[in-house]
Automatic annotation (TrEMBL):
Subcellular location: Cell membrane
InterPro entries: Na-dicarboxylate_symporter, Na:dicarbo_symporter_sf
Keyword Transmembrane attributed: yes
Gene symbol of the encoding locus: gltT
UniProt entry keywords in alphabetical sequence: Cell membrane, Membrane, Transmembrane, Transmembrane helix, Transport
Gene source species: Shewanella saliphila
Protein name listed in UniProt: Sodium:proton antiporter
Amino acid sequence: MLRSLRAYRSSIILLSALLIGGLFGGLFPEWAIKLKPIGQIFLNLLFMIIVPLVAVSVMSSIAHMTDLKKLGSILVSIMAVSIVMAIVPSVGVVLLALAYDPAQGVTLDLANTVDAASGSMDFVSLLTTNDFVGLLSKSNILALIIMSVIGGVAIGQSGEDGLVVSRILDSVNTVIMKVISILMYVAPIGLGAYFAATMASQDTELMGTFARAVGLFFVAMALYLTVGSTLYAWIGGGVKGVKQFWQHMLEPAVTALGTSSSLATLPVTIRSATKMGLNEQIAEISLPLLVNLNKGGAAAITALKIVFIYSLLGLDFTTDVFMLTILISVLSAFVIGGVPGGAFLGEIFIVTTLGLPMEVIPILVVIGAITDATSTVINVVHDLTATQIIERINGKHYAVKIPDNGLGELD
């Protein structure tokens, strides 16, 4: 029992700090407001690291992936399946949240601090900047991601010189991750203080909206786990594929629930793929990549957070915002997944891209922390269904294994 709880230690500590902060803000509002600078310092530290984090981590990852370009169609299939499996739950959650408003009329009194979250979106400005300096601003994260992807591809295609740059990026990425790990030690204090200041001036009914939002997410993911998984498994292997999936998905699902980590569950996922009779070559290539790319659960909770905050702020959820929500959900799942303290960086991604007030970050963190285990389960089980689909697309290229000639070499 204690070993299982250990995986959730950071989430439990964080939620406890936010709960204490919320209660303090409600009971002693005058004192709580004075704590805001403490939280502001912590958030500013995160803001300062997000630009180098995104640039370095994305370029490094893409540079390594381009080494797999000889795999051709299977790599394209992995990317395409991962994107679709992020879009589907994101769209579903948005539609469900719009139909059943989890805020139920409760509003946050932060309207004066919203920069650009309402009205139509300027997608040219969101996706590009007119000079290099613009890429160094946290307000242009989407443009930074696009340029980082292009840079990563260029590094991967630059031969020996590219390898040198790639190694340097790996080293820098290691240092950045360590910086983030250090910052996470003070996260409960920083976010707790900021949440206390936020709650000091808000309606006590706000707390009830969390339960409705989380409950909505659990219902949506239960439907997606049953209906969505069955559909994906059928696409990947027909009726037989559905039977194979449901016979062998429980072990990785339970492991994901206990560890709250897709990466920690990977060995169990690979073993389940073998039991399902999936092609070993395809599974060994696909699953390690899917762990980082296929994060439908993470995309879904990102989408819910955006709809929820728009409702709390009383902002119109326009068609432009809908499209941007899906884009943010997919990209945040790809970029933030696997990063220590990724939840905080995901919230910053949402806030800076949509021009939302920083006061909503602790609210987003609360929802993310409570739903983290469920999101991980969705991510893991759909690594299996994604592998089924990838095998169906590419199986003919891997159907025949090259025999061993007995000399330890392949013919």
